[in-house]
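We read letters as residues; the fold follows as C-alpha cells. A sample entry reads:
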Amino acid sequence: MFQYIADFVTFHLFALEIESRLALSINFFVYDTLKILFLIFFVVTLISFIRTFISSAKIKNLMSKSRFGLGNLAASFLGAMTPFCSCSSIPIFIGFLKAEIPLGIAFSFLITSPLVNEVAFVIMGGLFGWNLAILYALSGILLGVFAGLILGTFNLEKNIILTQAEKNISDQYLPKTFSGKIEYSFLEGKKTFKKLLPYVVLGVALGAVIHGYVPQEFFINYIQKYSLLSVPLAVIIGIPIYAGCSTIVPVIFSITANGVPLGTSLAFMMAIAGLSLPEAIILKRVMKFKLLAIFFLIVTIGIIIIGYLFNFLAF
C-alpha cells in the first residue's frame, strides 16, 4: 500500500521520470515516511494495549532477572526475526522503554533488528553461500547481545527522554474496561506519533537526498583507496547512508566482486543498515546525546571488529 502511494505521488501526481534522481528521492521519502509513521502509531498502540493486561512490574522483574545475557539473547533473536530497517525498529524500541524493559535488553533488539532478517539472510545465502550467511547472522545476533550487555552496565537510564506521562505509571491508574483500554492505547499511539513526526520527516528526508543524489561509486572508490584502514573507513562512510540490509546485499555482492575485501564490504553494509543519520535524528527525540553517542560508538567498534574478522578469515 505504501509503495503504491509513493509511486502514485512520484509518477502520477508529480509526473517525474522513472529512474531520475529526483524521482528516486521523492519515492524513497514518501514510502519510508509513511511506513515508519504507521509503524510508530501501530506498534506503540499495540504495546500500550497489551500493557493494560499485563503488570508492568512483572515484565520489568522478569526481564531484569534474566541472567547470563538470556534477556539480551532473546531480544536479539526477536530482532533477527523482524524485517525492519534501523528507523522502523525504533517504534518497538520505544515500546520496550515504555514497558520499562531494561535498557541494555532494549538496545539488543534495536541493534540486531536492522542487521539481520530472514529476507537479507536468504538473499545473502543465494549470493555468497549459506555458510557465510549463517556466520553473518550469528555475528549480527552476537553483536546485539554483547553491545546490549555493555550498554546495560553503564546505568544510563537517566539519559532516556520520556515524560512521566509516557512512562509506565502504576498499574492502578491503567484503565480497567475494554473500551477504556482501547482509548488509552490509541491516545498513547497518537502522542508518540505527534512527538516523533518532525524527526521522522527530517531523518527520512536526509536519507532520501543521499539515496537519490549520492552515487554508490563515490563510496566504493574511497573504500578501495585505503587497505589497512578500509574497514573503519567503510563504517564511517556507510553511516550517512540509509537503507535496509535486504536492499543493500546485492550492492555488497557487486562491490566485493570489484575487489573490495568481503569483511570491508560487510562492515560497510552493517554501518548502512544498523547506524544511520536518520536513525540518530529520530533517537535524539527519546534519548540524550550522551547515550546516543555511546550507543553509536559501541556498535561502530563492534562492526569494525566483525569486518576485520571476516577479512582475516578471508572467505
